[in-house]
Design brief:
The protein is mainly α. It folds into two domains: 123 residues, Orthogonal Bundle (TerB-like), CATH 1.10.3680.10; 213 residues, no CATH class. Helices cover 73% and strands 0% of the residues. Helix 1 runs antiparallel to helix 14, helix 5 runs antiparallel to helix 6 and helix 14 runs antiparallel to helix 15.
Length: 337
C-alpha cells in the first residue's frame, strides 16, 4: 500500500465519519486528535483531515487512488463500520454508502452482504446479553481463569465480585476480537461494550437503552465513531511499519511485525477502554448517577491507566480466547443464536 493509497483510505474513513451531517465538536476534535498523534506518515494526518473537512477533495478523487478491488472493498467495509458505530445508519449515511459502493466499484451483492452484517450488529438490542458460552470464563481452562489476578478489592461484596468478574470477561473478549483479522470482529466490539454497560446498570436498578448508553460513552469522552476511526488508524500504521520492516528483515518477517503493530496495540487499548468503561459505569450507577461529566472523564482516564497495568497479566487469557473464537460464528454468537 502506497502513501497515496493510505491517504485515500483515511479520507474515505473521514468522509464516512461525517456522512450523517451532524458530528458534534467533541467527535470532530477526537477524530482529528487520532490522526495528529500518529504523525504525517500514518496516512491519517492533519493534511488528510483538512482536505476532507474543507472540501478540497471528493469521494471520487479518493476512490480513484485505490488501485485494487481488495483496497476498494476494504475502504467500503471500513466506511460501513464507521457509519454504523453510533447505531444503525440513518438516511444520509445510507445515501452516502450507496454512492460510495458504486464509486468504488464494489459489486452490489458484496456491498449488500457487508452492510447487512454490520447493520445487524449495530441494531442488536443492548438488553440482549452476550451468550455465556462466548465469555472467557465459559471457554477457557478453569485453571487459567482461577490463576488470573483478582480485579475486586479485598473485602468486596459478592455483588462487586460478580460485577468485576463480568467486566474482566467482557474486556478479555473485546481484546481477543481485536486479534482477529475479520472486520466483523472489530464491528462487534462496541455492541459488546454497550451490553456490558447495560448489565452493570441493571445490577443497580437502572434499565438503560441504546441512546442513554451512547450518551454515557460520549460524556466520558469515548465517542463510538472515534473508536472505529482509531481502530482504522492502528491498521494503517501497522501497514506502514510492515512496509518499512520489509526493507530490513524481509517480507515474511515484516508481515509479523506489521501485524503486531496493528493487533498488539489494538488488543491492549481495547482491553483498557472496555475495563475502564465497566469500572466507571459501576461507580456511576452505584452512586445514583450523580457524578459530574468532568468527574466521569477523570475517573475514566485513571481507570484506563490502571487497565494498562492489568493487560499483560491477562494477555495469555486474551490470546487463548482469540484462538478459540470462530470468526464465522461471531455474528450469530453475539446475537445469541
Amino acid at each position: 500500500m502506497t502513501n497515496t493509497e493510505r491517504d485515500a483510505l483515511g479520507a474515505i474513513c473521514l468522509f464516512a465519519a461525517f456522512a450523517d451531517g451532524s458530528p458534534d465538536d467533541g467527535e470532530r476534535a477526537r477524530i482529528k486528535q487520532i490522526g495528529s498523534k500518529l504523525g504525517s506518515d500514518s496516512g491519517l494526518s492533519d493534511e488528510v483531515y483538512e482536505r476532507v473537512i474543507f472540501k478540497r477533495t471528493t469521494i471520487a478523487q479518493e476512490a480513484a487512488a485505490l488501485s485494487t478491488l481488495e483496497l476498494r472493498s476494504q475502504a467500503f467495509e471500513l466506511a460501513v463500520g464507521v457509519c454504523d458505530a453510533d447505531g444503525k445508519t440513518n438516511d444520509a449515511e445510507r445515501v452516502f454508502l450507496d454512492t460510495l459502493a458504486v464509486t468504488l466499484g464494489v459489486p452490489a451483492e458484496q456491498a449488500r452482504a457487508i452492510r447487512e452484517e454490520v447493520d445487524l450488529l449495530a441494531d442488536d438490542p443492548v438488553d440482549h446479553a452476550v451468550p455465556a458460552g462466548l465469555l472467557p470464563a465459559a471457554v477457557l481452562p478453569a485453571a487459567m481463569v482461577a490463576a488470573a489476578p483478582p480485579l475486586a478489592s479485598a473485602g468486596a461484596s459478592a455483588k462487586e465480585q460478580e460485577i468485576d468478574g463480568s467486566i474482566r470477561n467482557h474486556s478479555i473478549l473485546c481484546s481477543a476480537l481485536e486479534l482477529l483479522p475479520q472486520g466483523l470482529a472489530s464491528a462487534a466490539i462496541i455492541p459488546i461494550q454497550m451490553k456490558m454497560v447495560y448489565s452493570v446498570g441493571k445490577q443497580f436498578g437502572y434499565s438503560l437503552d441504546r441512546k442513554h448508553i451512547g450518551e454515557f460513552l460520549g460524556t466520558i469522552g469515548v465517542g463510538m465513531t472515534g473508536q472505529v476511526v482509531e481502530s482504522f488508524a492502528r491498521r494503517i500504521m501497522g501497514g506502514l511499519i510492515e512496509s518499512l520492516a520489509s526493507k530490513v528483515v524481509g517480507k515474511s518477517m515484516a508481515k509479523t511485525v506489521g501485524g503486531f503493530a496493528r493487533t498488539g496495540a489494538g488488543a491492549a487499548m481495547t482491553f483498557a477502554t472496555t475495563y475502564a468503561l465497566g469500572q466507571v459505569a459501576k461507580q456511576y450507577y452505584a452512586g445514583g448517577r450523580k457524578l459530574a461529566a468532568v468527574d466521569l472523564r477523570q475517573l475514566y482516564s485513571s481507570q484506563v491507566e490502571t487497565a494498562k497495568t492489568l493487560y499483560e497479566q491477562h494477555k495469555p487469557m486474551i490470546e487463548q480466547q482469540a484462538q478459540r473464537l470462530k470468526p464465522a460464528q461471531i455474528l450469530s454468537m453475539v446475537r445469541g443464536a
